[in-house]
Amino acid sequence: MNKKILVPVAPGSEEMEAVTIIDIMIRAGYDVTVASADFSGRLTFKASRGVTLTADCLLVDIADEEFDAIILPGGLEGSEIFKDSTVLIEMLKQQQYDGRLVAAICAAPALVLQHHQLYPKAIMTCHPSFKDTIPHAQWREKRVTYDKNHKLITSQGPGTALEFAMEIVIYFSGKAHAWKIAEPMVTAPNLNYHQMGKWDEASDQ
Predict the structure, then answer these.
(1) What whole-number distance in Å separates Cα of residue 128 and Cα of residue 11?
(2) Which Pfam families match (predicted)?
(3) Is there a contact between 35 and 4 (Cβ–Cβ < 8 Å)?
(4) What secondary structure letter does DSSP report for 102?
(5) Are strands 69-72 and 101-105 parallel, antiparallel or unpaired?
(6) Residue 8 in 3-state DSSP?
(7) What is the pLDDT along the chain (205 residues), one digit of tens a residue?
(8) Which of 20, 53, 59, 189 is the most exposed place for a label (fewest CB within 10 A)?
(9) In angstroms, rounded to a whole number, what is the distance separating the alpha carbons of residues 135 and 151?
(10) H helix or E strand, kind and range, residue 170
(11) How far apart are CA 17 and CA 148, in angstroms?
(12) Which of the residues are catalytic?
């Protein structure tokens, strides 16, 4: 069940998204690497609302490693840095080529994936303020969108970060495992994964 997860961060990354992603991946039992895409080589910097984020390493230092998923938090400034990071874009291209999962939330689907035309035929969502950057045929008005054919999960913003992260857990480990994480967190009853307690292990097969 152990999966290697890469979460890039940068100055201006959306902290609610970044921390929620990292937290849920750790709760799921995955091996999480938080890597700084900061061009000046800093590991510690301010996120979009002033919260201090500290990465484990620099993105360039783990560029040749393989990860089961690369998950991009949003935030306007952070996504712009991701967009301009040659190292990260090459890693995303390799991830896609190898058929491994890419996930992105908020501004990142539009400013990173769509900007570089990494998934020209995939369905996706993003923060509503960037909706016009996604071709109409590809856009989905959903809080979390999973394109099975392209192994791409996208989501809309800070308020959807928990659902987004749980969808990634479902992708790797199934609904029963996701429920084991959701139940002790006392998640909101109207969220789709709250009903996973009704599923047994057989339902994940």
Answers:
(1) 22
(2) DJ-1_PfpI
(3) no
(4) E
(5) parallel
(6) strand
(7) 699 999 999 999 999 999 999 999 999 999 999 999 999 999 999 999 999 999 999 999 999 999 999 999 999 999 999 999 999 999 999 999 999 999 999 999 999 999 999 999 999 999 999 999 999 999 999 999 999 999 999 999 999 999 999 999 999 999 889 999 999 999 876 666 665 554 444 444 4
(8) 189
(9) 19
(10) helix 161-182
(11) 22
(12) 106
Count other C-beta atoms under 10 Å from residue 192's C-beta.
Answer: 12
Place of tokens 């539009």: 110
Cα-flanking dihedrals φ and ψ of residue 164, to 5°? -60, -50
DSSP 20-66: HHHHHHHHTT-EEEEEE--TT--SEEE-TTS-EEE-SEEGGGGTTS-
CA–CA distance, 62 with 60 (Å, rounded to integer):
6
The length of the chain is: 205
CATH number for the 4-204 domain, one of 3.40.50.880, 3.20.110.20, 2.60.120.260, 3.40.50.720? 3.40.50.880
Distance from chain centroid for Cα 74: 9
pTM (predicted TM-score)? 0.94
Query: What pLDDT is recorded for position 203?
Result: 46
For residues 79 and 110, give the distance between their C-alpha atoms in angstroms, rounded to a whole number.
9
Q: How far apart are alpha carbons 128 and 183 in whole angstroms?
A: 30
Q: What is the SS3 assignment for 111-150? A: HHHHCCCCCCCCCECCCHHHHHHCCCCCECCCCEEEECCC
Amino acid identity of residue 123, one-letter, is I
